[in-house]
Amino acid sequence: xxxxxxxxGDALDALHEQIQSRLRVEAELDLRIxxxxxxxxxxxxxxxxxxxxxxxxxxxxxALPHVFAVALQHLRQRLDRYPDVRRPPGEQEETAPAxxxxxxxxxxxxxxxxxxxxxxxxxxxxxxxxxxxxxxxLREPPESWSEPGSDGEKFMALHYARFATQHPPEMWEGLGxxxxxxxxxxxxxxEAVVRLIHDLGWGTPGACLQSLVAARDELDLREVALVEDRxxxxxx
Length: 236
What we know:
Strand content: 5-15%
Oligomer: single chain
Largest sheet: 3 strands, mixed
Number of domains: 2
Radius of gyration: 18 Å
Distance between the termini: 41 Å
Number of helices: 8
């Protein structure tokens, strides 16, 4: 199949058709795919008549199937009523959206990866991009990231937990040591989050809900993030 003008082969034909069919039947929405140029590799927009998957036009063709597959899995998570992270009422700090996104990805990203693991899609380019980005963040981090209880420390603790959970071990070994040497407080808090989500898991909507709430509470982010159980509509 071809997406954003690039031929990506047929590995995702069945998954694409399945998600497209479910959207039409369960949500009465069409599925659209468009190119975009913002910072993220992909984005999903839910509209009144369609869901649009946006894929960064700068992603190399060989890496595009994995980026696209993850976006399709995020649609599947919503259709399957996996939990989401919501904005609480009231005023929010500028750092709040980034904290919510980091919390969301900490749990829902590995669940998505688990679902597409059998496809053995090429992730090397993405892993290299994430590795280089975190390495740059650790080069000269602002002092606020080392301040106990700060949003910066919490944000980096979420980063630590995600990399420790998802990054290839051979790539994380050295980077993890640099992280610990540079941001010891965020490392310690991140390790606590890793233990929680490994114990609770992410294999079901209920497990994801428990992991999101546990990670949120471990980092004292209740004023920044509410966790929605899409099965009941309840906010935690």
